[in-house]
């Protein structure tokens, strides 16, 4: 496995666990304030940046507190966990965004409950989703995932394959392309992180120049708890923030990105 940062390169964050509506309200306010400052530093409007709270691994009783604090859309990595929460919390009217890799045998589930899928990177997944969505009479917003860090263990299209992939998507009529998504390299080296975000923006702009319809709204979903301010400075329109809102995660990231962790457990994937 290549391109792995050493242990000294990995970012360290100490996010306290929110256990009350008041604590969630404060955490959300703090993240939104950071979003505003980051946007203003580069002359952008904070209103152009969507905050997507990521509730993966968080117990449903705490998710309910976050919803009470104002979360109306939540992101989840694993389809099974997302479906369970969508079912059990259906009374709260929350929309669910699936942000992790999709196995095609889970396409039916995503078609049933998700309002958005942010990790589309194969035509096989596109076809499976489209078939299930057509049967359900639904459509689905999607972001196309690009591997901007060139890490072989990460999902996402190689940048050089993006245009050809986007040109195939109109045949899947139930999928609405909203933009591009990426996971930056997981490191404390901010210039390296920024390079990933800059590349995604450059790719979006290039696709727009070729044919604006290829990238739909042209959204850029990039940036997580440790790097969302950098992502906003580079043009993010959606940031996926989990731990800065919910608190440090107890389940290791290898549970969500099993191919992104070597046997010794060093992290090489980004955290939400």
> Treating each run of at least 4 consecutive H or I residues as one helix, how many helices?
9
Query: Strand content of the residues, in percent?
Result: 5-15%
What overall form do the CA principal axes indicate? Answer: globular
Radius of gyration using CA atoms only: 18 Å
Low-confidence stretches: 1-8, 253-270
Mean pLDDT across all amino acids: 90
Fraction of residues in helix: 25-40%
- Major beta sheet, specifics? 6 strands, parallel
How do the SSEs run, as a string of H and E? HEHEHEHEHEHEHEHEH
- Provide the CATH superfamily: Alanine racemase
The total strand number stands at: 8
Short characterization:
The protein is α/β, with parallel strands linked by helices and 272 residues long.
């Amino acid at each position: 496995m290549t391109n792995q940062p050493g242990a000294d390169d990995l970012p360290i964050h100490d996010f306290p666990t929110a256990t009350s509506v008041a604590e969630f309200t404060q955490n959300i306010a703090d993240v939104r304030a950071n979003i505003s400052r980051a946007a203003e530093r580069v002359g952008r409007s904070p209103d152009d940046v969507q905050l997507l709270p990521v509730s993966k691994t968080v117990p449903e009783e705490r998710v309910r507190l976050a919803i009470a604090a104002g979360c109306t859309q939540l992101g989840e990595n694993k389809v099974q966990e997302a479906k369970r929460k969508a079912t059990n919390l259906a009374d709260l009217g929350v929309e669910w965004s699936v942000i992790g890799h999709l196995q095609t045998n889970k396409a039916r589930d995503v078609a049933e409950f998700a309002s958005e899928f942010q990790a589309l990177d194969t035509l096989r997944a596109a076809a499976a989703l489209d078939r299930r969505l057509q049967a359900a009479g639904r459509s689905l917003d999607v972001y196309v995932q690009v591997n901007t860090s060139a890490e072989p263990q990460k999902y996402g299209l190689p940048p050089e394959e993006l245009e050809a992939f986007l040109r195939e998507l109109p045949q899947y009529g139930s999928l609405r392309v909203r933009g591009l998504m990426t996971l930056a390299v997981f490191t404390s080296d901010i210039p390296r992180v920024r390079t990933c975000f800059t590349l995604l923006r450059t790719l979006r702009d290039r696709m727009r120049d070729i044919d604006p319809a290829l990238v739909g709204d042209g959204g850029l979903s990039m940036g997580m708890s440790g790097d969302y301010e950098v992502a906003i400075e580079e043009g993010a329109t959606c940031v996926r923030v989990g731990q800065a809102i919910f608190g440090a995660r107890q389940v290791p990231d290898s549970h969500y990105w099993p191919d992104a962790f070597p046997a010794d457990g060093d992290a090489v994937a980004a955290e939400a």
